[in-house]
## 1
Amino acid sequence: MTNLSVVGLQWGDEGKGKLVDFLAGRFVAVARFNGGSNAGHTVVIGAKRHTFHLVPSGALAGKELLIGAGVALDTEVLSQELSLLPPRARKRLTVDNRCSLVSPADKGLDVAIEEIRGGSSIGTTRRGIGPAYAMRALRLALRASDVVDEGGQDLGPMTDVYRRLGADPSGLRKWVEGARATLKGRLGDVGARVMDIGSSGGSVLFEASQGTLLDLLHGSYPYVTSSHTLVSYIPAGLGIPLSEAGEPLGVAKCYTTRVGGGPFPTEIGGKTAAAIREAGKEYGATTGRPRRIGWLDIVALRYAVMLNGAKKLALSKLDVLSGVKEFKVCTSYRHLGSESGNFQRAAAHLGEVEPVYESPLTLHGAEYASGLPRQAQRLVEYLEDALKVKVTLISHGEERSRTIEL
Ligand code: IMO
Ligand code: MG
């Protein structure tokens, strides 16, 4: 079997964690390659809810866990998360030597920069992700191997730069000691491990964090995250050749959410949005913020499918729309009198476009106990035609077993 890449096609929170857990049994390992503790991936087994920020969502499926070099690693969050796992699962984690670390000063800077931006703040998760990647680009960040190798860290330049930026560098030495304790015995070469698994006939499941529209280069800049969220980043983020990036499986909800600032053409408010938010538990898994709610946006989704080369789609949260009379699907944007279905062309004025909707669809009252109901089948056919993909998985509830393979 080839490697498989689970990637989000919207603004994050598409249900990637649930699907990774569901699919993990078929793979030797699950690997994260981007983002950091800004991710919040929820896995529900029976009545128990688990949220992962850094540990790959294959942890409860008993799989080998890999964190690649492309991840911005907050060792304090990692340590907390590991403490919640059974000891066996803890032993299965390998962190790449080259992962750059998120320092406490990065978190302080994240908050300070958001304050400076004022009314145009990004609405970050305040996890220090932007500053940590900036420090890496400045070649000032510490990498995982630096803190584990005794004497491998020269904190001088980093401390001076933080001080000049007005961040508090006083806790850095202590933080390095904590990071060392968390990482000792867990470091390795994740790219080489992925290749070894392939050589011995196994395969790896790649778990993206965030979503395509939050990609630093191709998303709704500047309202994006600071890493790359597309499947094309998998080889770079893990240190493997392009040929091993695997088959992409795009994940999309049957409506859209967004958390934080930025344009959102299909956003809705009022009672319907509130009902969807409650039914879908649409509150940030990392920050607890209520998520903004909107209808499914085919224009944006088509762009995301193209960027990832996704031929397969997993559609999630169908159960949430069972309680809604009818829903809409945006098929093009209107701007200054003309209509276009091209997301990229609309990107510069995304905040001003008016969504053009297809006549209402419905999943009202749909039940999933004995397979895919007719209304859902109709939605699947509609999306397969509109997006030129094959829908291979349906998620109709957060619990692991509420999944239908087509
Ligand atoms: P998962 O993996 C949804 C959003 C933040 C903010 C912007 C930048 O659970 O899908 P950052 O802290 O990354 O600098 O914030 O990106 N964001 C997410 N939104 N799901 C996520 O991850 C997100 N990670 C970051 O809300 O708008
Ligand atoms: Mg999430």
## 2
Amino acid sequence: MTSKASAVPSTSAVQAIQWQDGVLRLLDQRVLPLETRFIDCTTAEATAAAIHDMVVRGAPAIGIAAAFGLVVAVRANAASFDAAEAVLAASRPTAINLHWALQRMRGVWARTPTAERLEAEAIAIFNEDLAQNLRMAALGADLIAPGSRVLTHCNTGALATGGHGTALGVIRTAWAQGKLAQVYNTETRPWLQGARLTAWELMQEGIPGKLIADGAAAHLMSVEKIDWVIVGADRITANGDTANKIGTHALAVIARHFGAKFMVVAPSGTFDLSLASGDRIPIEERTAKELTEFRGQSVAPLGMQAFNPVFDVTPAALIDAIVCERGVIVQPTTAAVAAVLR
Ligand code: MRU
């Protein structure tokens, strides 16, 4: 049985992951907002390349894409599960959602090794992600007082998830509830997830956001009261330490300095309880060209070296609340995380 695109959900005009007649179709996030182009993935290798090259990105979205990548592989060759799983698992290192989704698919495959059962599980992962986002959005919005000003980082919306978004989902819902006086979003260098993707989603939704340079956050908070900094996560360890897009840690330090509260929004699939603390999280480093070039043009002297870690770890002590679909973890500690997650 194959599913139509309507088998998978969206709560906005943005449908970045589509599953249609056995083909995984991904909105190419590398060319947004200038172009709307889709890429079809018909093998696990093509899906892994799309994840690695950031056609699809954002922790929950790459988990969903990887689950469908297994389905396309097994539909073509039932003996290819292990090889497909290995190539997909190696596509990006930091977001645990990728491994969480692959592990869930492996459990299903061990019990019922059919392409149909795998497909049903991938669709379930997709559907559940949207449902979890809607739940987190309601829980997160409850923490926000009317008239609040918020700042978000990276892209955590429908493009990064199965729909609605994690941090941006909270902002969408709080905006719909009339609680937000102002939304700011960082440009998120060097890949510009904020300038290209979050700005695009805000505009599609009619939410009047304001873009800031990453380096403008401290100045913004010194001249205007920001009530909440709201971000997503790629991996949260047992003590609440949170890996997210590079620059998140700096925002948490600045937020604490200026008295803004700091909210992390992530589904249970983003937690890695096998790691006691964030110093064990593998941090992806990408090509220096992301810093030394812009759209193929050099912006630094030829031969200049660069260090390009694309995630950082925010210590739990700088986080006021982690919003998960299972509940809100206030002032995260190992005990507080366990109380909600176990
Ligand atoms: O490198 P990216 O674009 O995949 O990084 C994305 C982020 O860091 C997001 O903030 C995170 O995945 C949460 S998305 C709901």
## 3
Amino acid sequence: MPLQQHSNDDIAKRMARIGDEFAVNGNFLYGEELCNGHINTTYRVCYRSEDGREDRYILQRINDYVFKDPAQVMRNVEKVTRHISWKILRRRRDAAGQTLQLYPARGGRNYIMLPDEGGMWRCYNNIEGTHTYDVVENTRQAYQAGYAFGSFQDLICDMNPEDIKESIPDFHNTPKRYADLLTSVAADPLGRAVNCREEIEKLAAWSGRFGKLTAMQAKGDLPTRITHNDTKINNVMLDEETDTAVCVIDLDTVMPGLVLYDFGDMVRTATCRANEDEEDLSKVYMQLPFFESLAEGYLDAAHGFLTPTEVDWLAFSGWLITTEIGMRFLTDYLDGDKYFRTSKPEHNLIRARNQFKLAESIDSHLEQMQQYIRRLMRSYTKR
Ligand code: GN1
Ligand code: MG
């Protein structure tokens, strides 16, 4: 979601200065800030080449409070983007431009360090002819999101796991996230715990279920795979005209994980018509038809490689990840809003309450959700 175009002001000069560090073609025309992530800073810039062609690029600053080793993030991203491009281009030569590509920077790396501009910057192609949604509007979009991330997992499942390092350790380790919350409650540096007693109690009551997936993973009952780990609906680029999925973006958290974390985060963001900032909690609930389409899209792409145990926990993962992200918002609220970008007072508390409401709604549908998944799986074996 661009805010405002800049072509000749100080912001434009900064964007041009950063863009000129990369192998982009031509002269800077204009740029705009894209405001749909909580972590990195993102600009879309347009350059005109000598022959009059206008090309758009994405410039992004990697947040080094969140990603402690940004160079490692870039090594992961480079391997993943290359692997995907190689696979897609082998199938469809005309798909160039529809996968993420990094542009080299001055000096030969795929990033540049600009200490006076906040640190590390990188440059991607802008995937033209596509758009994203912050909330799902119809079941077709939910299907496409599921299909896109299922296909993504399929595309990267043959990468060498040794090649991809953890960019944020314990990213989806829910018991660890809960322990972090309890540490923040105990420290309570800003005296905010008093505002969220009810939420803290709620989590204590739910905490017996937080370790289900990590325990199964530790026992070897759930396979560790390379996964995306941030499968929000607005990380799927859909064709502007047909609304079919073109590619997924935001690869910074691609690392070893459970496919259930990816599916869970899709349930969190593609089955509710309200976004995570919605304050009117009466609008925050899961819609079963959206879940069904999401599951159908995901399984159409992924049913071939999932194990029966993975399939058994798909619905539960929606509840778990929604609760986990809510817990992370609450922890950041207590810590003083250092991690997630906020734009109003109590923003992280609002988000946490929203997520807990959604988690309760998902929880009340778990049996129906899992039944639907079982039915879908049976339909594949019959085909
Ligand atoms: C962050 O920046 P964004 O919106 O892509 C976060 C995700 C959360 C999400 C909640 C690296 O992602 O884990 O699910 O906010 N990313 C990181 O909206 O922490
Ligand atoms: Mg992200």
